[in-house]
Amino acid sequence: LLMAYDPAKRLARLNIQLQASLVGVEMLYALLDRKPAIEEAEDAVPLKVGAGRVRLRNIRFRYGRKAPALDGLELIAEGGKVTALVGPSGAGKSTVFALIERFYDPDHGNVLIDGQNLRGVTFESLRRNIAYVAQDAFLFEGTVAENIRMGRLDATEEEIRAAAKAANAHAFIMAMPRGYETELGENGATLSGGERQRIAIARAMLRGAPILLLDEPTSALDAEAEAAVGEALARLMKGRTTIVIAHRLATVRHADMIHVIEGGKVVESGSHGELREAGGLYSRLYDLQFRD
Ligand code: ATP
Protein backbone atom coordinates (compact mmCIF):
# COMPACT_ATOMS: atom_id res chain seq x y z
CA LEU A 1 0.00 0.00 0.00
CA LEU A 2 2.73 2.42 0.97
CA MET A 3 4.69 1.79 -2.15
CA ALA A 4 1.74 2.26 -4.47
CA TYR A 5 1.73 6.01 -4.61
CA ASP A 6 4.82 8.21 -4.89
CA PRO A 7 6.77 5.98 -2.51
CA ALA A 8 9.55 8.31 -1.51
CA LYS A 9 7.20 11.15 -0.74
CA ARG A 10 4.86 8.92 1.23
CA LEU A 11 7.76 7.40 3.03
CA ALA A 12 9.16 10.82 3.81
CA ARG A 13 5.83 11.89 5.31
CA LEU A 14 5.45 8.70 7.32
CA ASN A 15 9.03 8.98 8.40
CA ILE A 16 8.38 12.45 9.77
CA GLN A 17 5.37 11.24 11.66
CA LEU A 18 7.35 8.42 13.19
CA GLN A 19 10.43 10.40 13.92
CA ALA A 20 9.63 10.84 17.59
CA SER A 21 8.70 7.26 18.11
CA LEU A 22 10.78 4.40 19.34
CA VAL A 23 10.64 2.89 15.89
CA GLY A 24 13.79 4.31 14.39
CA VAL A 25 13.88 5.54 10.85
CA GLU A 26 16.33 2.80 10.05
CA MET A 27 13.88 0.22 11.29
CA LEU A 28 11.14 1.75 9.21
CA TYR A 29 13.25 1.49 6.10
CA ALA A 30 14.15 -2.06 7.01
CA LEU A 31 10.49 -2.92 7.39
CA LEU A 32 9.87 -1.61 3.93
CA ASP A 33 12.98 -3.35 2.67
CA ARG A 34 14.58 -0.12 1.56
CA LYS A 35 17.96 1.24 2.46
CA PRO A 36 18.04 4.76 3.88
CA ALA A 37 19.21 7.20 1.24
CA ILE A 38 21.86 8.51 3.59
CA GLU A 39 23.72 7.40 6.66
CA GLU A 40 24.92 9.20 9.74
CA ALA A 41 28.56 10.25 9.71
CA GLU A 42 30.74 8.21 12.05
CA ASP A 43 31.95 11.38 13.76
CA ALA A 44 28.50 13.02 13.77
CA VAL A 45 27.89 15.52 16.58
CA PRO A 46 24.61 16.84 18.00
CA LEU A 47 23.15 19.85 16.22
CA LYS A 48 23.13 22.93 18.45
CA VAL A 49 20.37 25.34 17.57
CA GLY A 50 20.69 28.96 18.65
CA ALA A 51 18.90 31.53 16.48
CA GLY A 52 17.65 28.75 14.20
CA ARG A 53 18.85 30.16 10.88
CA VAL A 54 18.45 27.72 8.01
CA ARG A 55 20.55 28.10 4.90
CA LEU A 56 20.56 26.11 1.66
CA ARG A 57 23.73 26.95 -0.20
CA ASN A 58 24.12 26.41 -3.94
CA ILE A 59 22.05 23.24 -3.96
CA ARG A 60 21.82 20.79 -6.81
CA PHE A 61 19.79 17.66 -6.23
CA ARG A 62 18.06 15.07 -8.34
CA TYR A 63 16.00 12.01 -7.57
CA GLY A 64 17.78 9.07 -9.14
CA ARG A 65 18.35 9.73 -12.82
CA LYS A 66 15.61 12.27 -13.23
CA ALA A 67 16.22 15.87 -14.23
CA PRO A 68 17.41 17.95 -11.26
CA ALA A 69 14.62 18.82 -8.83
CA LEU A 70 16.79 21.60 -7.41
CA ASP A 71 19.44 23.34 -9.45
CA GLY A 72 21.46 26.24 -8.09
CA LEU A 73 19.06 26.87 -5.23
CA GLU A 74 20.07 29.50 -2.65
CA LEU A 75 17.77 30.11 0.26
CA ILE A 76 17.98 31.61 3.73
CA ALA A 77 15.32 31.36 6.42
CA GLU A 78 16.22 33.76 9.22
CA GLY A 79 15.99 32.57 12.80
CA GLY A 80 12.66 33.24 14.48
CA LYS A 81 11.08 34.57 11.28
CA VAL A 82 8.42 33.28 8.93
CA THR A 83 9.71 32.35 5.49
CA ALA A 84 7.13 31.40 2.88
CA LEU A 85 7.87 29.25 -0.16
CA VAL A 86 5.59 29.65 -3.13
CA GLY A 87 5.84 28.39 -6.67
CA PRO A 88 4.15 26.24 -9.26
CA SER A 89 3.57 22.52 -8.79
CA GLY A 90 6.79 20.57 -9.23
CA ALA A 91 8.98 23.64 -8.62
CA GLY A 92 10.87 21.92 -5.80
CA LYS A 93 9.24 23.21 -2.59
CA SER A 94 8.73 19.81 -0.98
CA THR A 95 12.24 18.83 -1.97
CA VAL A 96 13.58 21.79 0.01
CA PHE A 97 11.83 20.33 3.08
CA ALA A 98 13.19 16.86 2.35
CA LEU A 99 16.75 18.25 2.31
CA ILE A 100 16.29 20.27 5.50
CA GLU A 101 15.14 17.08 7.21
CA ARG A 102 17.99 15.26 5.58
CA PHE A 103 16.01 12.51 3.94
CA TYR A 104 18.55 13.08 1.19
CA ASP A 105 21.87 14.85 0.85
CA PRO A 106 22.25 17.33 -1.98
CA ASP A 107 24.44 16.24 -4.90
CA HIS A 108 26.13 19.62 -4.68
CA GLY A 109 26.05 22.34 -2.02
CA ASN A 110 25.13 22.17 1.64
CA VAL A 111 22.28 22.63 4.06
CA LEU A 112 23.28 24.54 7.19
CA ILE A 113 21.46 25.20 10.44
CA ASP A 114 23.14 27.95 12.48
CA GLY A 115 26.24 27.33 10.38
CA GLN A 116 26.39 23.57 11.01
CA ASN A 117 26.43 21.35 7.95
CA LEU A 118 23.71 18.73 8.25
CA ARG A 119 26.09 16.11 6.89
CA GLY A 120 27.94 16.24 10.20
CA VAL A 121 25.11 16.15 12.73
CA THR A 122 23.31 13.23 14.37
CA PHE A 123 19.88 12.25 13.07
CA GLU A 124 18.47 12.24 16.57
CA SER A 125 19.45 15.87 17.22
CA LEU A 126 18.14 16.96 13.83
CA ARG A 127 14.77 15.33 14.43
CA ARG A 128 14.51 16.76 17.92
CA ASN A 129 14.99 20.27 16.56
CA ILE A 130 12.61 20.13 13.61
CA ALA A 131 8.84 19.72 13.67
CA TYR A 132 6.87 19.10 10.53
CA VAL A 133 3.18 19.79 10.12
CA ALA A 134 1.85 18.07 7.02
CA GLN A 135 -0.98 19.16 4.76
CA ASP A 136 -3.05 16.29 6.00
CA ALA A 137 -2.36 15.03 9.50
CA PHE A 138 -1.55 11.36 9.72
CA LEU A 139 -3.77 9.82 12.40
CA PHE A 140 -3.37 6.24 13.47
CA GLU A 141 -5.70 3.86 15.24
CA GLY A 142 -5.46 4.72 18.88
CA THR A 143 -6.77 7.31 21.30
CA VAL A 144 -6.65 11.05 20.80
CA ALA A 145 -4.06 11.28 23.58
CA GLU A 146 -1.86 8.65 21.91
CA ASN A 147 -2.12 10.47 18.61
CA ILE A 148 -0.94 13.70 20.18
CA ARG A 149 1.80 11.95 22.17
CA MET A 150 3.49 11.10 18.88
CA GLY A 151 5.00 14.58 19.14
CA ARG A 152 7.05 13.48 22.16
CA LEU A 153 6.69 10.03 23.62
CA ASP A 154 7.67 10.87 27.17
CA ALA A 155 5.08 13.66 27.48
CA THR A 156 2.78 13.57 30.50
CA GLU A 157 -1.04 13.72 30.32
CA GLU A 158 -0.75 17.27 31.60
CA GLU A 159 1.61 18.26 28.77
CA ILE A 160 -0.66 16.63 26.19
CA ARG A 161 -3.60 18.67 27.44
CA ALA A 162 -1.58 21.88 27.49
CA ALA A 163 -0.49 21.26 23.88
CA ALA A 164 -4.08 20.53 22.83
CA LYS A 165 -5.28 23.71 24.51
CA ALA A 166 -2.64 25.79 22.77
CA ALA A 167 -3.65 24.16 19.49
CA ASN A 168 -7.36 25.03 19.99
CA ALA A 169 -8.11 21.32 20.13
CA HIS A 170 -9.06 20.84 23.79
CA ALA A 171 -12.72 21.91 23.41
CA PHE A 172 -13.57 19.61 20.50
CA ILE A 173 -11.68 16.75 22.15
CA MET A 174 -13.69 17.19 25.36
CA ALA A 175 -16.90 17.23 23.31
CA MET A 176 -16.19 13.70 22.05
CA PRO A 177 -17.72 10.75 23.91
CA ARG A 178 -14.60 9.68 25.77
CA GLY A 179 -12.56 12.87 25.54
CA TYR A 180 -8.82 12.20 25.26
CA GLU A 181 -9.50 8.46 25.46
CA THR A 182 -11.72 8.48 22.34
CA GLU A 183 -10.48 5.97 19.76
CA LEU A 184 -9.58 7.42 16.36
CA GLY A 185 -8.84 5.68 13.12
CA GLU A 186 -10.47 3.10 10.98
CA ASN A 187 -13.32 2.09 13.30
CA GLY A 188 -13.05 5.02 15.65
CA ALA A 189 -14.22 8.59 15.57
CA THR A 190 -13.60 10.60 12.45
CA LEU A 191 -12.39 14.17 12.55
CA SER A 192 -12.94 17.06 10.18
CA GLY A 193 -10.04 18.52 8.20
CA GLY A 194 -9.68 21.42 10.62
CA GLU A 195 -9.70 19.12 13.64
CA ARG A 196 -7.05 16.88 12.13
CA GLN A 197 -4.89 19.92 11.53
CA ARG A 198 -5.25 20.98 15.14
CA ILE A 199 -4.19 17.50 16.28
CA ALA A 200 -1.11 17.88 14.08
CA ILE A 201 -0.44 21.33 15.57
CA ALA A 202 -0.79 19.90 19.10
CA ARG A 203 1.83 17.26 18.23
CA ALA A 204 4.21 19.94 17.02
CA MET A 205 3.55 22.03 20.14
CA LEU A 206 4.42 19.02 22.25
CA ARG A 207 7.67 18.49 20.40
CA GLY A 208 8.71 22.08 21.07
CA ALA A 209 11.28 22.11 18.26
CA PRO A 210 12.78 25.50 17.38
CA ILE A 211 12.44 24.92 13.62
CA LEU A 212 9.05 24.36 12.10
CA LEU A 213 8.30 23.11 8.59
CA LEU A 214 4.72 23.68 7.63
CA ASP A 215 2.98 22.43 4.51
CA GLU A 216 -0.28 24.33 4.32
CA PRO A 217 -3.32 22.45 3.11
CA THR A 218 -4.46 23.43 -0.36
CA SER A 219 -8.11 22.76 0.41
CA ALA A 220 -10.00 25.61 2.01
CA LEU A 221 -11.63 25.27 5.42
CA ASP A 222 -14.84 27.02 6.37
CA ALA A 223 -14.37 30.41 8.02
CA GLU A 224 -14.76 29.16 11.59
CA ALA A 225 -12.30 26.28 11.18
CA GLU A 226 -9.90 28.58 9.34
CA ALA A 227 -9.92 31.00 12.27
CA ALA A 228 -9.35 28.22 14.84
CA VAL A 229 -6.49 26.70 12.84
CA GLY A 230 -4.99 30.09 12.02
CA GLU A 231 -4.91 31.08 15.69
CA ALA A 232 -3.35 27.75 16.70
CA LEU A 233 -0.69 28.11 14.01
CA ALA A 234 0.13 31.65 15.07
CA ARG A 235 0.76 30.34 18.60
CA LEU A 236 2.86 27.47 17.29
CA MET A 237 5.00 29.72 15.09
CA LYS A 238 5.76 32.25 17.81
CA GLY A 239 9.45 32.31 18.66
CA ARG A 240 10.36 29.62 16.11
CA THR A 241 11.91 29.64 12.69
CA THR A 242 9.03 28.78 10.39
CA ILE A 243 9.36 27.72 6.78
CA VAL A 244 5.97 27.32 5.20
CA ILE A 245 4.85 26.04 1.80
CA ALA A 246 2.15 28.64 1.53
CA HIS A 247 -1.32 28.31 0.07
CA ARG A 248 -3.18 30.83 2.21
CA LEU A 249 -3.39 34.49 1.44
CA ALA A 250 -2.93 35.49 5.08
CA THR A 251 0.32 33.53 5.22
CA VAL A 252 2.02 35.24 2.30
CA ARG A 253 0.82 38.63 3.43
CA HIS A 254 2.30 38.22 6.89
CA ALA A 255 5.47 36.32 6.01
CA ASP A 256 8.70 38.13 6.82
CA MET A 257 10.18 36.85 3.56
CA ILE A 258 8.74 35.06 0.54
CA HIS A 259 10.91 32.98 -1.77
CA VAL A 260 9.42 32.17 -5.15
CA ILE A 261 10.70 28.85 -6.44
CA GLU A 262 10.51 27.85 -10.06
CA GLY A 263 12.41 25.15 -11.91
CA GLY A 264 14.41 24.17 -8.81
CA LYS A 265 15.72 27.58 -7.84
CA VAL A 266 14.69 30.76 -6.13
CA VAL A 267 13.71 33.25 -8.81
CA GLU A 268 12.35 36.08 -6.64
CA SER A 269 12.52 37.02 -2.96
CA GLY A 270 10.92 39.75 -0.91
CA SER A 271 7.91 40.74 1.11
CA HIS A 272 4.43 40.46 -0.30
CA GLY A 273 4.35 44.20 -1.00
CA GLU A 274 7.75 44.22 -2.71
CA LEU A 275 6.95 41.23 -4.89
CA ARG A 276 3.55 42.60 -5.86
CA GLU A 277 5.19 45.80 -6.90
CA ALA A 278 7.86 43.97 -8.90
CA GLY A 279 5.09 42.43 -11.03
CA GLY A 280 6.96 39.17 -11.72
CA LEU A 281 6.10 35.50 -11.23
CA TYR A 282 4.86 36.09 -7.68
CA SER A 283 2.34 38.60 -8.92
CA ARG A 284 1.04 36.18 -11.52
CA LEU A 285 0.87 33.30 -9.02
CA TYR A 286 -0.83 35.54 -6.52
CA ASP A 287 -3.57 36.44 -8.97
CA LEU A 288 -4.09 32.76 -9.78
CA GLN A 289 -3.62 31.12 -6.42
CA PHE A 290 -4.24 33.47 -3.55
CA ARG A 291 -6.82 35.90 -4.74
CA ASP A 292 -10.41 34.89 -4.20
P1 ATP B 1 3.91 20.52 -5.38
O1 ATP B 1 3.49 21.92 -5.12
O2 ATP B 1 3.14 19.92 -6.52
O3 ATP B 1 3.95 19.63 -4.19
P2 ATP B 1 6.76 21.02 -5.26
O4 ATP B 1 7.11 22.42 -5.60
O5 ATP B 1 6.71 20.64 -3.85
O6 ATP B 1 5.40 20.61 -5.98
P3 ATP B 1 8.60 18.80 -5.50
O7 ATP B 1 7.62 17.82 -4.96
O8 ATP B 1 9.74 19.21 -4.66
O9 ATP B 1 7.82 20.11 -6.02
O10 ATP B 1 9.12 18.20 -6.89
C1 ATP B 1 10.21 18.74 -7.63
C2 ATP B 1 10.52 17.76 -8.76
O11 ATP B 1 11.03 16.56 -8.22
C3 ATP B 1 9.32 17.37 -9.61
O12 ATP B 1 9.77 17.21 -10.94
C4 ATP B 1 8.90 16.05 -9.04
O13 ATP B 1 8.30 15.23 -10.02
C5 ATP B 1 10.22 15.45 -8.58
N1 ATP B 1 10.05 14.59 -7.40
C6 ATP B 1 9.54 14.96 -6.20
N2 ATP B 1 9.59 13.96 -5.31
C7 ATP B 1 10.13 12.90 -5.97
C8 ATP B 1 10.44 11.56 -5.61
N3 ATP B 1 10.21 11.12 -4.38
N4 ATP B 1 10.98 10.77 -6.55
C9 ATP B 1 11.23 11.21 -7.77
N5 ATP B 1 10.96 12.46 -8.18
C10 ATP B 1 10.42 13.30 -7.30
Automatic annotation (TrEMBL):
Domain ABC transporter as annotated: residue spans: 54-288
Domain of life of the native organism: Bacteria
Entry protein name: ABC transporter ATP-binding protein
Species this protein is from: Paralimibaculum aggregatum
Residues of the whole record sequence present: 330 to 621 of 621
Cell compartments where the protein resides: Cell membrane
